[in-house]
Design goal:
- The protein is of the alpha/beta class.
- The protein folds into 2 domains: 248 residues, QueA-like; 84 residues, QueA-like (Thrombin, subunit H, Beta Barrel).
- The strands form 3 sheets. A 9-stranded mixed beta sheet has the order 2-1-17-16-14-3-12-13-15. Strands 5-6-7-10-9-8 form a 6-stranded antiparallel β-barrel.
- A hairpin with a 5-residue loop joins strand 8 and strand 9.
- Helix 8 crosses helix 9.
- The longest helix is centred in the first third of the chain and has 26 residues.
Length: 384
Amino acid sequence: MNKVRDRQTREVRSRLAFKAVRTWNTNVRSTEFDYTLPNELVAQFPTQERDQSRLLVLRRSNGDSDHRRFVDLLEYLRPGDALVMNDSRVIPARVRGIKTTTGGKVEILLVEENGVNDWWAMLRPGKRSPQGTRIVLVDHDGEPGAVQATIAEKNVEGLCRLNFTGAANILSMLESMGEVPLPPYISRNATTSCNDRERYQTVYARPAGSVAAPTAGLHFTERMLDEIRARGVHVCFATLHVGLGTFAPVKADKVSDHVMHEERFCLDAPTAKVINEAKDSGNRIIAVGTTTVRVLESIASGGDGHLKPCDGRTRLFIRPPFRFKVVGALLTNFHLPRSTLLMLVSAFATPGETGGRDLVLRAYGEAIAKRYRFYSYGDAMLIL
């Protein structure tokens, strides 16, 4: 009789816990992922050397943290671990042009390729550029060339669909006329310079397609990767072409009302094999960056956690509570308030539960007090 009663009590508690989680998931506000960051802690430049960044190590089991250098990451890796990185290459996605009718200047940020010379883009100014507007693109010296863009349509999200003429493929022209699409919080004096074409790119970047860097990988050097491999850690790659889905702010009051943009991803057979074998052997899958997490968990969704090679698109919005099927540790940067990235990290801090936000924001407060550098060119965080 007591065993039956205990089982019934556990079932009731389980239902109540599930109901509480579901209610929290529905009603949580985006403002609950807010925090205040001093402007001087927004990194405007990369460190002199990639691996000179700082590293905050957060342990989920007890909330303790260590403050190290990024090169100390090697001490936290074990033989047999699989370190999975996003190898997407950032394209020089920001181009400039002049309207053929008024001569007004236009800034274009290419967001997603629909097909050859057919792109969704953000325009500034956009509201004063109606459908049918033609724009002549200019080179780095401001001289107009043969390439033109025509606004074919606009969508409800404020993006413009551009059709390009004057080039076989606009992608091939971006090196001569495009600029590195640095995020808006990086604002430098015009007289300062930085080799962003190299530094806003991981050393292992391969397929081109991202409009923002998978920034957790910016800290690695080739030498450090060689040292990691020498320790028996499997270094492998997935691809997610970073677009608005990763960096678009959560404008909805309720987190559950936010809709992610689609982003393209690819996981090849060799990487899937390495990850599956590591999991089967009881070793950790360590994701480098939130974009890598989204690839692996998107593919694992609805399955048993084993991965198959896959090309596809994802709208997966990871937020508390979320049960991770693949990723066992996460290397990431420090993220903007109210961002989907901060919500993903909060979900990872307490998988399947809702307390991760408090744990992460407490760690962020510690990082602020110790003057860590934040955002794309900032320092890193390892969650174990």
